[in-house]
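Suppose a colleague, Dr. K., hands you the sequence of a protein chain of 422 amino acids and asks what its three-dimensional shape might be. Before reaching for any lab equipment, you can write down a predicted structure in token form. Begin with the sequence itself:
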Amino acid sequence: MTLLALGINHRTATVEVREQVAFDPAELDAALGELRSLPEVREAAVLSTCNRTELYCVTEPEGETVVLDWLGRFHGLPVEDLSRCAYHYLDHEAARHLMRVAVGLDSMVLGEPQILGQLKDAYQASREARGLGKELECLFQHTFAVAKQVRTETGIGRNPVSVAYAAVSLASRIFEDFGRARALLIGAGETIELVARHLVEAGVRQLTVANRTRERGEQLAAPLGGQAITLDAIPDALAEADIVISSTAAPLPILGKGMVERALKKRRYRPIFMVDIAVPRDIEPEVGQLADIFLYTVDDLQEVIAENRRHRQVAADQAESLIEHGVGAWLHDRRIRSGGELIHDYRSRAESLRDHSLEQALARLGRGEEPEAVVRRLAHQLTNRLLHGPTVALREAASAERHDLLQAATDLLLDATPDKTR
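The predicted structure, expressed as tokens, is then:
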């Protein structure tokens, strides 16, 4: 059997194609059932995120063609179109790919931690849908252990490399306890939404979103336990805010020096941490001249991000080394499992032949045949039945000049010392 990883991602397919190939969680059980029903597929798991859709399967040799055809049929896409942006890996390369995905080395943002959680969700969903067997179960458990080791030993996820995360990381250097801080976010676009999520994850419990339209602000704030206001309510909210992060598309500044001075006076000059992510700027540069204001711009964040990218690249190089070790350990375990399964199957076959021969011998004894003759016939019959398959295989190997098989048979069958005590 072959381990297969097949899929598309942000590097190989446009967002339009990724949307078409993504799996709705509601259809995952049915999809896994269909995939598992293919004669060539023994086990299957599906990972589907906004940036990738990947199938991990245990298949017959050359199963990638069958799985790709199925993926196209399931989503109603011509397999020719899908094949242009699909990739696949086999056996140890498939295991390596899964481990690289798990630690964020294959992500759009190097080392991002979210993918590991998504992979664990995919594993659990596939397990509940009975898509996993022994092979994939062992692979996923091994992968999670490697991912934990990589994150612990390299710190690959510690240094933020997105503007949103860098802004929150910068704030964490000033505020020891986010739980007591009040945050005011200006704007409601994708960057501010990410900032809001990072702040809440960091412990901020008092969150206000100011936006041109209150409805959009509420859509962002409500799921996070925050409140929404319109832009004209900013002066009052500013006086209560310890953290202000702004990212709008406004052509002119939203926060001027005068407005901020009045807010500082109302709050008795308690400091305010500000980050202006917008281009053009939302906060007048003169605001940074105020003694109790800590103002950072997108350029300041880029310096933080560039430095953190360098740190992450060093960590990524270390991660690659740990992954290679992990792949080697997985291969070793797989070989041991494979040997154990072979031994189990061989013993089961021998026991089946023994039971059949014994049943026939007991029947002869029951008919009154001479016991010694029955025993001799049993021994002769059992020897022939046990050796028939290997004998045929050895003759075929000799005819085909498979000297490697003949040498292996010699080592296995003739060099072992017989155990005469059993």
